[in-house]
Amino acid sequence: MTDIEGVCEPRFAAVREAFAALLEKDDVGASAAVYVDGEPVVDLWGGYTGADRTVGWGRDTLTGVNSTTKNMIALCALILADRGRLDLSAPVATYWPEFAVAGKERVLVRHVLSHTAGLPDLAGLTAVEELYDREGVTARLAAQAPEWEPGTAAGYHALTFGFLVDEIVRRVTGRGLAEFFAREVAGPLGADFHIGLSAEHDHRVAPLIPPPSLTDDYASSAPPGPDGERREYTGAAIRVGDVNSVAWRRAQIPAVNGYGNARSVAAVQSVLANRGSVGGVRLLSPEGCEPAWQEVFRGDDRVLRTPMSWTVGFGKFGNTFGWGGWGGSLVASDPDSRMTVAYVMNQMIDRERQEDNRGMEIIMAAYDGLH
Questions:
Q1: What is the C-alpha to C-alpha distance for residues 107 and 92, in angstroms, rounded to an integer?
Q2: Residue 264 lies in domain
Q3: Domain holding 96: CATH number?
Q4: Is 219 inside any structural domain?
Q5: Looking at the 3D structure of the chain, how many domains does it have?
Q6: Please, which residues have CB within 8 angstroms of residue 187's CB and are 6 or more apart in sequence?
Q7: pLDDT, tens digit, for every residue of 255-294?
Q8: Looking at the annotation, which residues are catalytic?
Q9: Rounded Cα distance, 220 and 205, in Å
Q10: Is residue 261 domain-resident?
Q11: Is residue 180 part of a domain?
């Protein structure tokens, strides 16, 4: 049996049991955390940092969470809006004048945050290395025409979401998302989460492990629709090997290259579930949290090929909001229960080959404890 470390309040024993079952079945190494009323009630970790199962997953092990990072940068935008420095209903060009070309004059900040801006792909992307040139990517997005009338449809902005929000934050504050998040969010909360990663933390990283029977060439892709057809995408494929590279860690790809563990993800996101404060630290007002769960768009997502509800920065699922990352990481918050649940792992699962309910199993177990 895999050793599990950490703490778990007795009423949340079901979370520990579910976590143990995952480590025995599918996971190599992972962490799970639950915050209620802004306080940690579950903080567990176990397993190994690599497929060879020689080094144990420790309390401070970090791993790439891919698109779970989007939850973090959305929070940054909401903080600026709550401070009166960013108007969610203003045109992006109010802050970024060069953006007002090729039909993007009417793209609002909330369109960017709700995946309705019409810029789901970076046109002409031919190599992953191009993503490491933040200024080049930003200039290309500024010149690009939207695929649809902004605000009228949604299409998951997998990579462009981060570059767009980053440039807006830079124009407002003079600092990029990585620096803003570190100073204004992670620092005050003492949260061990990083957007991009410096060399001093490399020794703590558990590389992502490709799905069973697949290699580091396993690439991300949009899921097929109900008819089996995929949305056409001609850009460069991002592979597990890219995400595990040093170049990826050092880059500024804010939508997808965040590093943390379940404790840090849950701590940060519980700010929104707990009406703006965690552990005595207030980051925004109760009213400033509300856009996180207020629906902006409901309908078929043109990229994900499934019905979606998008808020300002998050996916909405019933009473909860949040988002997950390629391979399996996940965070969900329930503002009614003031609960946030996070799950972070290194073993990826390909959902087209195998059902992946790992994060949901942790969330449902947390509700057992809550009730």
A1: 6
A2: 60-319
A3: 3.40.710.10
A4: yes
A5: 1
A6: none
A7: 999 999 999 999 999 999 999 999 999 999 999 999 999 9
A8: 67
A9: 21
A10: yes
A11: yes
